[in-house]
Design goal:
It is found in: Cell membrane. Helices cover 59% and strands 7% of the residues. The protein has 541 residues and is an alpha/beta fold.
Length: 541
């Protein structure tokens, strides 16, 4: 636990939040009624986590406090994995399992992320330990505690539900008596009943994960490498070998193997029909890998401890063998940790995350003047202004309608196409914060408001200047200053081969799309434009 705490606190202040963290940060600072309203339309799967973080950020709203619950949860999980190892295979195996969990790069990554995945992993590890206590005959009260822990864990993220399947397989492999099955079925049934309302609501919000794709064998290989202390080289292959040896320990394998295989297997299978799988959703399966590796290592150490050597000039006694084996284990764990230091160090950089919204805000702060209108393309780019308002406090969000927290959305409701045209008609210059993919003429946006933005920019404005930061930010975010085109000015010249770097080509394509859409609307005798629907496909939700 001390090692995990040190790894988690190391470089915790990266100097920037990425998109998902910024959502946690700004939603958790809303009032409870505002959070409740949001959950009716989006992110119900994270509702309990947002309410928990609302209390945490009430102490101090900053990036370090945002990530501290994940650090504490990862620390607790390392201790729980160690306790599982002690219960299943002895103190040495427990110590090894906890250390392996702490030094695995995947653990360190999510220990420093302001999302619920580390907390879910702690809940699953705690529930698994309670399951073993119940199997050993600790009494009926343990089943109620077990059910409560599983229910809270699944409420933090409903895709933790497959852990019930893993626990059912564990009971089957252990061949427990009927009374144990009876207690578990009651607890699991209560959990399922409590989660049904959450599942029903979240089904209507499935568009949030529409960006996921059906996983193939490449994702299986990637997960296998993520669940080991080293993704490649001798550490990876040595871990697989020790896992195979650990399968010989029946009691440990009955607990660790289902935890390792069942949740990813269920989600990957379901995802062939309806994609729901991502590595972070099964972070809790890593505990199974650590237990198997430590069990294999303990079995090898036990075999070596029984070796005796009596020669004419040297005698190796049993205590010498045990000391040598112990020293070898310590050196192996130390070498594994040192081998992962470059990976862990790289992970402490904000550039290693999908985006860095602090960079976008800093860029806006240097370039924008007081009162400058700003347009976000697409509207999800407003997360940078919500997470780091200092960079945009002098600017005027020309497309936003009302307050974002009161809107019951993640990044606000925008003006209708007609209203947006009127607003843009009143300005001679506008800053555009855009993601590169949103300006790609080969990928016109489906939302009418987004198409209107690009159409107006193509028809009435021209690019005056463009700023791009070298740091890795969300899909290469660019900051462009558009000024109103004077009569007789020609559009910026560029060819179709220029792709997304050509603003006039992308905007012209959007303009044609808007005109075509308007003509279809008139032919169908639609009297008013459709109400814009918020784009729910936030990457990484």
């Amino acid at each position: 636990m001390a090692l995990m705490l040190a790894v988690g606190l190391w470089g915790l202040d990266r100097g920037g939040m990425w998109g998902d963290e910024s959502v946690t940060f700004q939603v958790a600072q809303r009032t409870v009624p505002q959070i409740w309203r949001l959950l009716h339309d989006v992110d119900a799967v994270h509702g309990l986590y947002y309410l928990f973080m609302h209390a945490v950020l009430a102490v101090r709203p900053d990036e370090v406090v945002l990530r501290l619950p994940s650090v504490c949860a990862a620390t607790a999980t390392a201790g729980l994995v160690g306790a599982l190892g002690v219960r299943l295979a002895g103190p040495r195996a427990g110590l090894c399992a906890g250390v392996l969990y702490a030094i695995t790069p995947m653990t360190g990554h999510y220990a420093q992320e302001g999302r619920s995945y580390a907390l879910v992993a702690a809940g699953v590890a705690g529930a698994t330990l309670l399951l073993l206590r119940a199997v050993d005959g600790a009494g009926a009260r343990v089943w109620w505690v077990y059910g409560t822990v599983v229910a809270l864990t699944c409420a933090l993220h409903e895709l933790a539900v497959p852990v019930l399947g893993a626990h059912a397989l564990t009971l089957a492999l252990l061949r427990v008596p009927r009374r144990v099955w009876s207690g578990w079925v009651r607890a699991a049934g209560a959990v399922v009943l409590l989660l049904l309302p959450l599942v029903w609501v979240s089904q209507g919000q499935a568009g949030q994960v529409a960006w996921l794709v059906a996983p193939g064998w490449d994702r299986v290989e990637r997960l296998a490498r993520n669940l080991t202390p080293g993704p490649a080289g001798p550490v990876f292959w040595g871990s697989l070998l020790l896992m195979a040896v650990g399968l010989r320990e029946r009691h440990t394998a009955a607990v660790a193997l289902p935890l390792l295989l069942v949740p990813p297997g269920i989600l990957m299978t379901v995802s062939q029909v309806r994609p729901l799988y991502h590595d972070r959703y099964v972070l809790y399966a890593l505990a199974g890998a650590s237990l198997l590796v430590s069990s294999g290592a303990a079995r090898v150490a036990g075999a070596l401890g029984r070796v005796r050597f009596d020669g004419r000039r040297m005698r190796v006694r049993a205590r010498h063998v045990h000391a040598l084996v112990g020293l070898t284990g310590v050196l192996a764990l130390t070498a594994t940790f040192l081998a992962q230091l470059p990976v862990l160090r790289q992970d402490r950089s904000a550039a290693h995350r999908p985006d860095n919204l602090a960079v976008v805000s800093a860029l806006a702060l240097r370039q924008m003047h007081p009162g400058d209108p700003v347009l976000f393309v697409p509207s999800v780019g407003r997360l940078a202004a919500l997470a780091y308002p200092k960079g945009f406090q002098r600017a005027r969000d020309i497309a936003l309608r009302g307050s974002v927290p009161r809107s019951g959305t993640l990044w606000g409701r925008e003006a209708t196409p007609d209203e947006l045209r009127r607003r843009l008609a009143s300005v001679d210059r506008v800053w555009v914060v855009a993601e590169a993919h949103a300006l790609d003429p080969r990928r016109p946006p489906s939302d009418l408001v987004e198409r209107t933005k690009l159409a107006v920019l193509a028809e009435e404005f021209t690019v005056r200047e463009e700023h791009v930061r070298r740091e890795r930010v969300r899909d290469d975010v660019v900051l462009r200053l558009y000024i109103r085109r004077r009569p007789g000015d020609a559009p910026d010249g560029c060819s179709a081969a220029d792709g997304p770097s050509c603003p006039s080509a992308s905007a012209a394509a959007a303009s044609r799309a808007v005109v075509s859409s308007s003509r279809r609307a008139r032919s169908m005798r639609i009297s008013s434009a459709p109400k814009p629907v918020e784009d729910a496909m936030r990457r990484g939700t």
